[in-house]
Design brief:
The complex is a heterodimer of chains A (about 280) and B (about 160). Chain A is α+β, with helices and mostly antiparallel strands. Chain A contains ten helices and 14 strands. Chain A has three domains: about 45 residues, Uridine Diphospho-n-acetylenolpyruvylglucosamine Reductase, domain 2, CATH 3.30.43; about 120 residues, Uridine Diphospho-n-acetylenolpyruvylglucosamine Reductase, domain 3 (2-Layer Sandwich); about 100 residues, 2-Layer Sandwich (Enolase-like, domain 1). Chain A has a five-stranded antiparallel β-sheet. A four-stranded antiparallel β-sheet of chain A has the order 11-12-13-14. A three-stranded parallel β-sheet of chain A has the order 1-3-2, covered by helices on one side. The N and C termini of chain A lie far apart (about 55 Å). With about 160 residues, chain B is of the alpha+beta class. Chain B folds into two domains: about 80 residues, Beta-grasp domain (Ubiquitin-like (UB roll), Roll); about 70 residues, [2Fe-2S]-binding domain (DNA polymerase, domain 1, Orthogonal Bundle), CATH 1.10.150.120. Chain B has a five-stranded mixed β-sheet, sandwiched between helices. In chain B, helix 2 crosses helix 5. The longest helix of chain B is centred in the last third of the chain and has 16 residues. The mean pLDDT of chain B is about 95. Classes of the chains: A alpha+beta (about 280), B alpha+beta (about 160). The interface between A and B is medium-sized, with 28 and 32 residues. The complex binds flavin-adenine dinucleotide (FAD) and FE2/S2 (inorganic) cluster (2 copies).
Amino acid sequence: MNNITYHAPKTIAEAVSLLSEVQEARILAGGTDLIAKWKKSHFFDMNLVDIRNIGELSVIEEREGRLFIGAGVTMDRVCENPAINEKFPILAEAASKVGSVQIRNLATIGGNSCNAAPSADTVLPLIAYGADVCIVSKSGERRCALKDFFKGPGKTALEKGEMLKGFSLPYPAHGTVGMFVKHSRRPGMDLATVGVATVVRLDAGKIAGIHVVLGAVGPVPIDVEGLDVFVGKEMGAASEKIAGVCTDAAKPITDVRGSKEYRSEMVRRSVALCLEGSSK
Amino acid sequence: MQHKELRFKVNGQEQQVFVRTNWSLAQVLRDKLGLLGTKIGCGEGECGACTVLMNGKSVTSCLVMAVQAEGAEIVTIEGLANGDTLHPVQEAFVEAGAIQCGYCTPGMVLSTVALLEKHPKPTEEEIREGLTGNLCRCTGYQKIFEAVRLAAEKIARGAGR
Ligand SMILES: Cc1cc2nc3c(=O)[nH]c(=O)nc-3n(C[C@H](O)[C@H](O)[C@H](O)COP(=O)(O)OP(=O)(O)OC[C@H]3O[C@@H](n4cnc5c(N)ncnc54)[C@H](O)[C@@H]3O)c2cc1C
Ligand code: FES
Ligand code: FES
C-alpha cells in the first residue's frame, strides 16, 4: 500500500520503452486529475512515468501544413499561444476556462483528453476543429480522429504501452467561425454542466460547413451527426432546427450539476446562442 | 517504501533532501523544510492554500509530487520578504485588512504576486480571474481585492523594497 515508483524519462523513446517494461505503468503529466484521484481513492500504489521533462511533448508548431500541439503543453500556454489564438480561438477560450490559474499552470492538454471525463473543456473545440490524435508506442506511431478516441467515461482508445503524443489540427478554411459555451454553476472553478463548441463556415449567409460538439451530456463527448443536410441552407432559418437535432443527440443524465431536463434545455439554448453568434 | 534524493532551490537556497516518492511538494516544504507558511487545506487543488511559485508560475503544491520538483525553483511565502521589510503585496494585505484567520493568506499573496507580474495594472475582471483558485472562508473577498489594487499601486510607485 501507498507505494510509488517514479521514473522521469527525458525523451519519448525512453518513455515508451518504460511503458512497455514497467508493470501497470501510469503516465503522470500535470497530475491535476491523477494526483487528485489518487488522494481521493486511498492512495493506491502507482508506477509513475512522469512525462513533464520530455521537451518533444511540449511543442506547438506547424507540421505538414497543420498545427501540432504536443500532449504535454500546459493550459496556460494554450491560452497564450499566438497561432492557437489566431487560428483556433475557441481552443484558447476553452483552455482559459479550465480550473484556476494554478491548475492551468499544471494541467496539460493531453491529460484533459486522456482522462476522458465527459466534461473535459478542451476536447470539444479540438473535436470541432477536426483534430487527430497522434499515438506513440514502442512499435511506432498511429493516428486516429479525436472523436473516435473516447470509449467511455475514463476510457480511451489507448492500448497498453501507448501514449498520446499530441494533436494535429487542420487549419480552418477562410470564413470559419468558432463559438464555445461552458455552462457551469458558477463562472470559475467548476466543471461544465453543459459544454458546446460549434465551428461554422458561412458563404453569403448560407451554411457551407457545420460542426457541433457537446460535452457533459453523455458518457463521451458527442460529435453531433447528421448536420450535413443543413449545408446550403440559410443560417437564420436553420438554426432552430439544428439546435433541435443537437438536443436529440444529447444523452444527459441527472447529477449534482443539473437534471437531465435542464441539461437538455441548456444544450438547445447554448447551441442556438453559438449559431446566432457565428452569423454576426 | 521508495525514497529519492531531491535537489531543488527553495527561496533562493539550494536544498538536498531525502523524500518519499509518495509525498507531495506541500508536505516536503512543511515537514522536511519547516516552511509552515504553505498551508494544506483541501489537498485536492480546489482551495489554493498550498499555492507556491514553481519556476515562476503559481501552482497548487498539494497536487505536485515532491519528486517532480527535482531541479525546480520554488518560492514560498517565507521567500517574499526581504529581512524585516515586507514585500509590497504583503504590506498591502496588512494595510487593507485583507487578513482574518490568515489561513488563506500565503496562497492569496502568492497568487497576487503572480497576477501582478502578468498584469501590473489589473482590471477588476483580471483580479477576480487571477484569484479564482484561492478560497477565503472569513475575510470576504472585497478586502482582498482592495489589497490587490493597493499592491499594484505600491509596486508601480516602487514602494516596498
Ligand atoms: C481543482 C480542479 C479544477 C479542474 N477544473 C477543470 C475544468 O474546469 N475543466 C476541465 O476540463 N478539467 C478540469 N480539471 C481536470 C484537469 O485539470 C484536466 O483534465 C487536466 O487537463 C488534466 O491534465 P493533467 O496534465 O493534469 O493530467 P494528469 O492528471 O497528469 O493525467 C490524467 C490522466 O491522463 C493520463 N495521461 C496524461 N497524459 C497522457 C499522455 N500524454 N498519454 C497517455 N496518457 C496520459 C494519466 O495517466 C491520467 O490517467 C480540474 C482539476 C482540478 C484539480
Ligand atoms: S490544499 Fe492545495 S489547493 Fe487546497
Ligand atoms: S482569512 Fe481566514 S480563510 Fe481567508
